Amino acid sequence: MRVLGIESSCDETGVALYDTERGLLGQALFSQIDMHAAYGGVVPELASRDHVRRLLPLIRQVLSEAGCGPEQVDGVAFTAGPGLAGALLVGAGVGRALAYGWGVPAVPVHHMEGHLLAPLLEDDGPAFPFVALLVSGGHSLLLDARALGDYRPLGESVDDAAGEAFDKVAKMMGLGYPGGPRVAALAEKGLPGRFRFPRPMTDRPGLDMSFSGLKTFTLNTINDLGGAEALSDQDRADIALAFQDAAVDTLVIKCRRAMEKTGGERLVVAGGVSANRALREKLDAAMAKRGVRVFYPGLAYCTDNGAMIAYAGALRLAAGERSGLPIAVRPRWPLAELASLSS
User: Fold this and answer.
1) Which of 8, 82, 109, 164 suits a disulfide with 91, CB 3.0-4.6 Å?
2) Both 134 and 244 in a single domain?
3) Dihedral (C-alpha) 167, 116, 18, 62: value to the nearest 10 degrees?
C-alpha cells in the first residue's frame, strides 16, 4: 500500500509517500521559519496562506521523486489535529480532495500520534507496548502505548510544554525565533554550576510536569542581572545551560518514574525537543542503568514532517479506518480519545 501523507498543523508544510513494503519513497518539507521570525513567532493566517502556496508543488515533487503517478497511490493521510485551525483545514482539504479525485480512501491522522510512531520509521524501531515521552512546543506528556491507538496517559505538563518554555526563555534573552535550538546551542558554551535552577514537581510523587515556574525563575535571574540588554554573551550561555539542565533533568526524572511504574523495557522519545542532545545523553545514561532501551526518531523526523503522517496513516488504513467526505479538523484533540485499532 502506498500512502501520501500531508502535514500542515503549524509552520511546516510536509509531504511524503510511504510504501508498506518498500518504506519511504519520497518526502519534501518546507519550513516557514524565515517568514515568522520577523514576528517573533507563528502568525496563523500567514501560515495558512503559505500552506496553500506550497502544498501542490510539494506533492508533485514527492510523486516525481518516487517515480509514482497518482494512479499508483492507494490512500491519502492528512493531519486533522491538533494544531492551528486554518493550517489544518488547508492540508485536510487538499488531502480529502485528492483522495476523492483519485478514488482512494483518506484517513485523518492525529499529529501527536504521528510523532509517537516516527521512531518506527527506523529499521530497528520498537514494537508495542512501550512508554512514550512526547515533547514539543505544544505538548509534554507521558503515555503507556499498548497498541495502535491505545495510548493511556501517565502524566503531562500542567502548564507550559517543555518546548514552549525553551522558546520563551530564548525570547527573554533576545535570541530570536525559533528559540529552542538556539538555547541548546548557547548552553554548550555555558559554565556549569554558576546558576542552579529548580527541577519543578520532582520533589513530589506523580508523573505530571510543570515548566511555567522554571520559566519565571529564569526571567527573575535575567532581571537580577539587569535585564536582557545588560546580559553578556557569557551570562546568556550560563543561563541557557542552567535552564536546559533543569528542564532535561525534570524530563529524565519523570521518565525514570514512568518506567518504574509500568515495568516497561522500551521508552520512545519523540517530538521537536527529542532532538536535544543533552536530553538524549542524560536519558540514555539513566535508562541504561535500568536496562531500558530508548528509541528516538531520526533527526529529520523529530520536527513536523510528512513521513510520520504517511506512516501513521498507512497503519490506520491497513486497520480499516477511513474518512468520510465531510472535512473535519480538531485544533484541540486529546490523544487519549483515539480509538484503539489493535487486532
Assistant:
1) 8
2) yes
3) -10
